[in-house]
Amino acid sequence: MADADHQQKAPGNVAATHLESTAAVSQLFREHNRVLVAYLTSRLRSEQEAKEVAQEAYVRLLQLQEPDKPSLLRAYLFKTATNLAIDRLRHRTIQHRAQQQPELFEDLNTIRGDLDDPAKQLLAREQAERLLCYLQELPIKCQQVIDLHRLEELPQHEVAVRVGISERMVRRYVTYAMVYCHLRLDGMAADQVRQRVSL
């Protein structure tokens, strides 16, 4: 039994296993890559993104410890690629929502100015209160950018001068803040959001 275990762990056997795995993935690439990229392109509406996702799926396939039957590897490849495509689509949707809904922070004016106005809806006030809490979770410079750009309505170039950063960084902070707050409003924990979205 010990000899069998030793054989399994021997460097030569490990190298052989890796070669088998590489050969199997290479065969999958030759036989199915065109179909895989076409499938991903139909989902992502972008051939470039489809190729990137396919490449990442092959990399994950190569990281498997043991090669498997070609039919199972093919199923795993397409399943992995599908999951990666879904992640990209979800991230794209979040980014699009953030860019298309600049009014996200407008309700903050309600809580800061017209909180007692009976015409304001309760839900809007509650969301504004939650947003204020979520904004306090952001990095300090990000908070400063949001205060100046969204709440005080200063142009981006002036915000950049005030905070001491580039206009490009101002745009990144605004996008990050909006994506962060959207995910928090959707119920995601702060740690999870930080893992998913980075500056």
Helix content: over 70%
- Which whole number gives the mean pLDDT? 77
Q: How many distinct beta strands? A: 0
**pLDDT < 50 runs, ≥5 residues:** 1-14, 110-115
Q: What is the count of helical runs?
A: 10
Identify the CATH homologous superfamily of the largest domain: Winged helix-like DNA-binding domain superfamily/Winged helix DNA-binding domain
User: What would the principal axes of the Cα set say about the shape?
Assistant: elongated
SSE-based structural type: mainly alpha
How would you describe this structure in keywords?
mainly alpha; Arc Repressor Mutant, subunit A; elongated
In short:
This protein is mostly helical and about 200 residues long.
Description:
The structure is a single chain. This protein has 199 residues and is mainly alpha-helical. The protein has 2 domains: 2-89, no CATH class; 102-196, Arc Repressor Mutant, subunit A, CATH 1.10.10.10. It contains 10 helices and no strands. It is elongated.
SSE blueprint and pairings:
Layout: H1 2-9, H2 11-44, H3 47-62, H4 70-100, H5 107-112, H6 122-135, H7 140-151, H8 156-163, H9 167-185, H10 190-196
